[in-house]
Amino acid sequence: MDITFLGATGTVTGSKYLVGSGKSRILVDCGLFQGYKHLRLRNRAPFSADPKEIDAVVLTHAHIDHSGYLPLLVKNGFSGKIYCSAATRDLCAILLPDSGHLQEEEARYANKRGSSKHRPALPLYTLDDAQRALQQFTPVAFNKEVALGGVSARLIPNGHMLGSGCALLKDHHTSLLFSGDLGRPNDLILHEPAAVQRADYLVMESTYGNRRHDPSDPQIALAEIIHRTVARHGVMVIPSFAVGRAQTLLYYIHLLKATQAIPDIPVFLDSPMAADATRIFHEHRALHRLSDAQCDAMCRAAHIVNSPEESKALDRRHGPMIIISASGMATGGRVLHHLKTFAPDARNTILFAGFQAGGTRGAAMLNGAESIKIFGEYVPVRAEVVLLDNLSAHADYEEILDWLEHFERAPRTTFITHGEPAAADALRHHIEERFGWRVCVPDYLEKVVLK
């Protein structure tokens, strides 16, 4: 067996791993690169393997940095099956068409404004491309082994988002475990990651490999931020991942209002995609902790904004109010229009509730940028910018180490990926210090033979 690291090296985006065994070629995850321009350009570069020669894709979860390249892979000749959980399939049916539509809209807007160097600007793929890719999705149950030629695959729940899992691949000689994005043991909504006892080799994510989450109650912190914003008669804009963070935020807001811990101010979910994802929680009750009544309360916590006209009308409203809108790192989507309107006013708040990859607008704002570029124009940032990172769906390094404690013996090698350089190297050091395991941080396009 061998593995080639086609993404998520030196960055938290673009997750792609090509696994070879005999004549079998399996791709684990197929995500888009996001953030810095040199990373985004990889999305348009020729794929590092011939898509026609890939037998199957195993998808750990639905987030775009793990699934968003699939429409292009299919467009360029991949004809095999895409194996994932049923919830991942249902969420990708929302996320991938939205991604294609968004790229078409951005290309159309760039051509209208002449803000692109390309004449004409073209989308990476279209909504129709995404719809065609969805026809190749094949849902499988957790912990059920699937034969993929000379390799078998099994998904193990890992608590990061609805339907997410680790992927365990085996051939006749070797087992290789991909952690995917590892969730947290005490998440408000999702079950904790399942324990894994052994694998010959491990590919471990390291998003928070150099950090521990704030142990304080995020519900209290969120209430304090809302109160500050209300006191200024401001607007709180929350760039949020449509799947996962949006639902957690809605449920926290429901709890805060139910206990009268915050005023009953208007809350808008300006993301039809997030609204659809919230409804999917009803359809997969076994995968989370909420009852039907709690799911209903989460769905009712905000007014759903469906049309572009309604979305534009929000920018003409005055505070106090809360707007939750995708995307989570402010890389695209409706939230850009809200940031353009509300970021210049010091009465307002921009709240981030998840990891912000380097090179994204979210990272720039958290690092104190005085202005951000939106639609070719620089927009001043005078609003209060806050990170509530203890709402993160990623395990921090202590939680990762606790999960690794379940291994009955050391993997022959643990590969650290899906982390920015400082985080990846810090997790390497933590694992070596705690367990004495052999650990390495692979390079982009590096190929390793697993003996």
Q: Which strand order do you get reading across the main beta sheet?
A: 6-5-4-3-2-1-22
Shape: globular
Helix share, percent = 25-40%
How many domain units?
2
Percent of sequence in beta strands: 15-25%
CATH homologous superfamily (4th level) name of the largest domain: Ribonuclease Z/Hydroxyacylglutathione hydrolase-like
Largest sheet: 7 strands, mixed
- The parts where pLDDT drops under 50 for at least 5 residues are none
Q: Label the structural class.
A: alpha/beta
CATH topology of the largest domain: Metallo-beta-lactamase, Chain A
Number of H- or I-type helical stretches: 14
Task: Report what the structure shows.
The structure is a single chain. This protein is an alpha/beta fold and 451 residues long. It has helices spanning 37-40, 64-67, 70-75, 86-113, 127-134, 218-231, 245-258, 272-283, 292-300, 308-314, 335-342, 361-366, 397-404, 421-435; strands at 2-5, 16-21, 24-30, 56-58, 81-84, 137-139, 146-148, 151-157, 165-170, 175-178, 201-205, 235-239, 267-269, 303-304, 321-325, 349-352, 371-374, 377-380, 384-387, 413-417, 439-440, 447-449. It folds into 2 domains: 2-211 and 393-449, Ribonuclease Z/Hydroxyacylglutathione hydrolase-like (Metallo-beta-lactamase, Chain A, 4-Layer Sandwich); 218-391, Rossmann fold (3-Layer(aba) Sandwich), CATH 3.40.50.10890. The strands form 4 sheets. A 7-stranded mixed beta sheet has the order 6-5-4-3-2-1-22. A 7-stranded mixed beta sheet has the order 7-8-9-10-11-20-21, with helices on one face. Helix 4 (86-113) packs antiparallel against helix 8 (272-283) and helix 8 (272-283) runs antiparallel to helix 9 (292-300). The N and C termini lie close together (7 Å).
